Amino acid sequence: MTDDPDAPVxxxxxxxHAVGRMRDYRPYIDPDWREEFDxxxxxxxxxxxxxxxxxxxxxxxxxxxxxxxxxxxxASGELDAxxxxxxxxxxxxxxxxxxEVVIPDFGQPFELxxxxxxxxxxxxxxxxxxxAVGNRAYNRWLIDFCSIAPERYAPMAAVSFGDxxxxxxxxxxxxxxxxxxxxxxxxxxxxxxxxPRYDPIWRTLSELGLPANTHISISGASDRPIQxxxxxxxxxxxxxxxxxxxxxxxHQVLPHLIWGGVLEKHPDLQVVITEQGTDWLIFMLASADxxxxxxxxxxxxxxxxxxxxxxxxxxxxxxxSSLLSTAEVAARHEIGVERFTFGxxxxxxxxTWWGGNGTRDYxxxxxxxxxVPLDETRRMLGGNAAKLWGFDVDKLATIATRIGPTPxxxxxxxxxxxxxxxxxxxPLGVGVG
Length: 433
Known about the structure:
Layout: E1 12-18, H1 34-47, H2 54-57, H3 63-74, H4 85-95, E2 99-104, H5 115-121, H6 128-146, E3 153-158, H7 164-177, E4 181-183, H8 199-208, E5 212-215, H9 238-251, H10 253-259, H11 262-265, E6 271-274, H12 279-293, H13 309-316, E7 317-321, H14 326-330, H15 332-335, E8 340-342, H16 359-370, H17 374-389, H18 393-403, H19 407-411
Parallel strand pairs: 1-2, 2-3, 3-4, 4-5, 5-6, 6-7, 7-8
Helix pairs in contact: 7-8
């Protein structure tokens, strides 16, 4: 990273989503599945939706907010960059984002929408066979999406762990094609992340140097459906009641990996905790360390893990921090400056990328408000991500110089409240959502 204090800041977003229009996946679908996929596409046209569309947004947002979004973002084509790599580069340039970790979104092959939407509408989930076929097709599509500028994109492959041999084959194929990591799935309750049968997968990821990403609504310690179709007193409380279940489920993957001995057995495995808050890590790790050192629990648990839980975190875990609050930025040393990466969360409504000056304003409201030193800012916004996902900073330097925000643009404290709603003002310890 540059030592020039006036040089633009290289921002590498750890959380950007891409998904294809459903029928665009057809060339990537295994040939013997295409007839079934054609029938599914007709069904998707009737009831399916993407996470950034009104059908899904109405479960969380006021009607007038959704109408504004529909008129100003969807109708204008602003969101077409979710499935068009060239438009995505233009959107990133406008927002000052040098490079991006590209994560799957809802609307993959054979997928009708978000888990909350499926539960609310009583729509079917994908079968295990459809997941496997859909993952292969999506990963091929994603590599093509990113191929326009491979130095600026780090694609994350979608992988099911249901068939271990099949998972390893797909991981190796995706890696050969250009994937820089994978997304962890929902684990069956009878076969959690620490099940020894997954050890060959963890070894493969370690061998290839591919980080394993957890992400809200994509990963979890249980694959039980969210029971959000149960009666609630008002539609507005649907997400507060049932959304918390998703976050808890996703948070539980990390304790399973730590206490289950996965990180002990696979010391080179790197795990990224994306879009599920970061403040909970402070309290979870403090509690886990006390359990390890000061509680009355059995001492022979040290036969499974040799280090304090926080030591595994510092050695092998990272935060894909979207969306950061000012309080979390202030607590960055408790969480670990050296483990922070920053996410923009395109194309989602809660992301930093839209409105006003987009991510520049969001960073002023958080990093600028807290007065984060420039050297820490450069690490948290780009340097850590480059190290973790293997971005070539020399290739990205020219792009960052051209489009990146200057330090004063993002580190000057705001003179007005730039984000009266959203995550900016969220206190520590209140959870997410």
